């Protein structure tokens, strides 16, 4: 009986786990290992893979020699600088508003969520139209208040501003819904106790809401940071990396090098540099969070 | 707060939220009405929100350039298959990680979790090569397979299944149930809410996915909606009315799903933030 039970447990484990293990192996582990190997070769996909040459760290050093790489990395950091603080501040404000017990709040929650569910491709195409220099609605609205709008997506300064604004527009619902869930976890008791002590709205925000929300804020910052480094869909559709590389990003270059120029080795090296940047910045965040994230509730 | 102060605060909140809601949804309204304008009115200055004549031809005319409804069917097929397979594979694995002990299980689980940290771009090139070596590029299988597994989904379901008391399983075992029986009669019914949220999330990611179809598909017959739309805009960059018609076709289904399953959409999002 015991032996039979043990046998059935082992088979059950194997049967239930095998599909996931096969997927993990085929779509994660094997590609990861090959990606490392390919990144040390000059492989261009056109030659047979048995004929690829190992060229050591050349691809990696080329990543740091190419001006394009610096442009992409710099662009992503410019994006981060505009995007990250705005999404955290605006997302928190919106979450606080959405948490108020007012009538129709569910409708507002649904409305802010609509951009989140839509594909980046559809959204980018709509915004390309809205931001069109001549026939775009945005510049028309600006002209009504006497502002001559830029040719957004063809201007090397405003193209990045447009990408940042549109990404904020699409992501704010996502961020504020996560923060809303965090807010709803905070017990009313804290606020009631603070009110008895005569605390102002401001001090309630800084002494209760922000510290209590800090684990969720930390999560939102991490996710937004990781997503920012992977900026791609909206860039490819809205500006195609232009004008003159002004909105070129790391992933966009990985894509171009691999699938347009067949530089598989170089693209793989670039993707590992991306991985290193993401890893390093999340580690920095991890260090920083110790100072301000409050875990004991 | 005094009654009056409260009223003012509520009014201000309404004002802000209404303004924001309009700003966030207006582009969709513009897209919707744009899809019914003709190609002159769509770029006319000053712009008008509503078309002077509702033009339904755009939805048919777009077919002359691109098989939009074929893209639609492809997207639906890929999204449904991806979602069902992902749920099955992740739930089964989560069951083992939560309830069926064996030696090395913990290290295996850690391995699963580690892959969650690898950005998709790292595996993109080798995945493409693997799929082209196995002749899966330009096939439905090639579109579906990379999405059928999610370490994150496995992790989430495992956390959920762990909360199911062992006594419940033991009782089933005493009644003579096997591990398979327990999985279908005890585990799956109890994790249904999580499964619903995950399925909505998986469906949305697949429906909206762009990068993988972009490299995994060449022929028109296999393109999904986002990919087809991106190609359409490349070729007919000024026919905004047609592009908007295409956008509407890609937006309406996910919007309808959202209206009916709002709770699960939002749960799917908030679950990503679970500590």
UniProtKB/TrEMBL annotation, chain A:
Q: Where are the transmembrane segments?
A: 76-98, 110-130, 157-183, 204-226, 269-288
Q: Which CDD domains match?
A: TM_PBP2 (cd06261)
Q: Does the keyword Transmembrane apply?
A: yes
Known PROSITE patterns for this protein?
Answer: ABC_TM1
**Domain of life of the organism encoding this protein:** Bacteria
Q: How does it sit in the membrane?
A: Multi-pass membrane protein
User: What InterPro entries does UniProt report for this protein, alphabetically?
Assistant: ABC_transporter_permease (IPR051393), MetI-like (IPR000515), MetI-like_sf (IPR035906)
Q: What is this protein called?
A: Sugar ABC transporter permease
The answer to whether keyword Transmembrane applies is yes
Which UniProt keyword terms apply here? Cell membrane, Membrane, Transmembrane, Transmembrane helix, Transport
* Family that this chain belongs to: Belongs to the binding-protein-dependent transport system permease family.
Organism the protein comes from: Cohnella hashimotonis
Q: Which residues form the ABC transmembrane type-1 domain?
A: 73-285
Q: Name one Pfam family in it.
A: BPD_transp_1
Known SUPFAM superfamilies for this protein?
MalF N-terminal region-like (SSF160964), MetI-like (SSF161098)
Q: Where in the cell does this protein reside?
A: Cell membrane
UniProtKB/TrEMBL annotation, chain B:
* Classification via Pfam families: BPD_transp_1 (PF00528)
Q: Please report the record's description of how this protein sits within the membrane.
A: Multi-pass membrane protein
Where does the protein end up?
A: Cell membrane
Domain ABC transmembrane type-1 as annotated: residue spans: 72-261
Asked if the Swiss-Prot or TrEMBL record annotates the protein with the keyword Lyase, the reply is no
**Location (main, coarse):** membrane
State the InterPro entries in the record: MetI-like, MetI-like_sf
User: What name has this protein been given in UniProt?
Assistant: Carbohydrate ABC transporter permease
**Can you name the source organism?**
Cohnella hashimotonis
